[in-house]
Specification:
The chain has nine helices and 19 strands. β3 and β4 (about 50-60) form a beta hairpin. It has about 375 residues and is of the alpha+beta class. α7 packs across α9. It is globular. It has two domains: about 1-175, 2-Layer Sandwich (D-amino Acid Aminotransferase, Chain A, domain 1), CATH 3.30.470.10; about 185-350, D-amino Acid Aminotransferase, subunit A, domain 2 (D-amino Acid Aminotransferase, Chain A, domain 2, Alpha-Beta Barrel), CATH 3.20.10.10. The two termini are about 15 Å apart. Strands 1, 2, 3, 4, 5, 6, 7, 8, 9 and 19 form a ten-stranded mixed sheet that branches. Strands 10, 11, 12, 13, 14, 15, 16, 17 and 18 form a nine-stranded mixed sheet that branches. It binds pyridoxal-5'-phosphate. Pyridoxal-5'-phosphate (PLP) binds near residues 80, 240, 244 and 267. Pyridoxal-5'-phosphate (PLP) binds near residues 244, 270 and 311.
């Protein structure tokens, strides 16, 4: 067990926090990302000065110049991670260094200044300390943290901004896991792509998500919950969903997932699940996977299971893949053995119910 570095951000307490009663009401059944805590963390970077003004203060609007570069050119990157309350009341983060490293990698791609791991952890853990009462208890509930970097220089010039803000907000979220046994239908998009080679696919940046909304609407029109994107060059290989990675399980128990080709977001959950599956002694292959191989594998029964994974929902079984020219159901359409065992194994580690063999958990409170 390692402890997160002590907060070095100045804490200016919100003078008007919500009452216990109001907070309790908001935390009863929070809609994902709609409820925010009393505080936020923030620091500002200026060319030639570096990062300054580290503070944790009252949550509220961010005053912004209408010419702020982020509003015009989307020079922005973000992260998503959770704080988990264990049964003894302690509060923990799961592999936050991976989020810090991914934010730094995303920042490099978007020509934004990097946030050091130390600042990242201090901002996140300081905010959790300030809003400790907002960390829900109960298996499946957590405090979702949203660190982001944005170009705030007022300038319409298309060039890297000389003023950038780093902000972290926190939102209590309820149990969000798909009901066991239930799989979702996924639309395979032929007309739209998420990422191109040399583009921003492996960065966690706003534009990738903005571009996924139209295909997401197309998926909904076809009765599907989410979109599976194909590679942009040949529309031949499967990549990932709009906000989750994809894992395939063959009927012999071996596991297959698209390799991190530069167009796919390197998910923390993906890495953790692949590690747990390798621990089980399973063969895990990361490589290019053709859509036709997936469809044929589902039809022949060689592929017994497909699931998506990410921080928000952990593991979501995929029941059906649909597009204009095919509609295939995976096995009997219900969650397979691997999805329904590896998901809970990971959450058991996150909630302190199981041993943490890889030393992934970081105690905050
Ligand atoms: C495009 C995309 N892929 C995959 C993931 C899963 O990543 P993680 O497991 O780190 O949440 C996310 C969520 O952050 C995502 O937005």
């Amino acid at each position: 067990m390692e402890t997160v570095a002590p907060a070095q951000f100045i804490h200016v307490a919100n003078r008007h926090p919500l009452s216990d009663e109001e907070r309790g009401r908001l935390m009863e059944a929070p809609v994902f990302g709609k409820v925010f805590t009393d505080h936020m963390a923030r620091m500002t970077w200026r060319e030639g000065e570096g990062w300054r003004e580290r503070r944790i203060s009252a949550f509220g609007p961010l005053p912004m110049h209408p010419g702020a570069a982020v509003l015009h050119y989307a020079q922005q990157v973000f992260e998503g991670l959770k704080a988990y309350r264990h049964e003894d009341g302690s509060v923990w983060l799961f592999r936050p260094e991976m989020n810090a490293a991914r934010l730094a990698a995303s920042a490099r791609r978007l020509a934004l200044p990097e946030v050091s791991e130390e600042d990242f952890l201090a901002a996140v853990s300081g905010l959790i300390e300030a809003d400790a009462a907002w960390v829900p208890s109960g298996y499946g509930s957590s405090l979702y943290l949203r660190p982001f970097l944005m170009a705030t220089e007022p300038s319409l010039l298309v060039q890297p901004a000389d003023t950038v803000d780093f902000v972290v907000t926190a939102s209590p979220v309820g149990a969000y896991m798909a009901a066991a046994g239930e799989g979702v239908s996924i639309w395979v998009s032929r007309d739209f792509h998420r990422a191109t080679i040399g583009g921003t696919g492996e960065a966690k940046t706003a534009g990738n998500y903005a571009a996924s909304m139209l295909p997401q609407g197309e998926a909904a029109e076809h009765g599907c919950k989410q979109v599976l994107f194909l590679d942009a060059k040949e529309s031949r290989y499967i990549e990932e969903l709009g906000g989750m990675n994809v894992v395939i399980v063959r009927s012999d128990g071996s596991v297959l997932t698209p390799r991190l080709s530069g167009t796919i977001l390197p998910g923390v959950t993906r890495d953790s699940i692949l590690t747990l599956l390798r621990d089980e002694g399973r063969s895990v292959e990361e490589r290019d996977i053709e859509l036709s191989e997936v469809i044929e594998g589902i039809e022949s029964g060689e592929i017994g299971e497909i699931f998506a994974c990410g921080t928000a929902a952990v593991v979501t079984p995929i029941a059906r893949l649909v597009s204009d020219d095919f509609d295939v159901t995976v096995a009997d359409g219900s969650a397979g053995f691997v999805a329904s065992t590896v998901g809970p194994r990971l959450t058991d580690i996150q909630y302190g119910r199981a041993e943490d063999p890889h030393g992934w958990m970081r105690r905050v409170l």
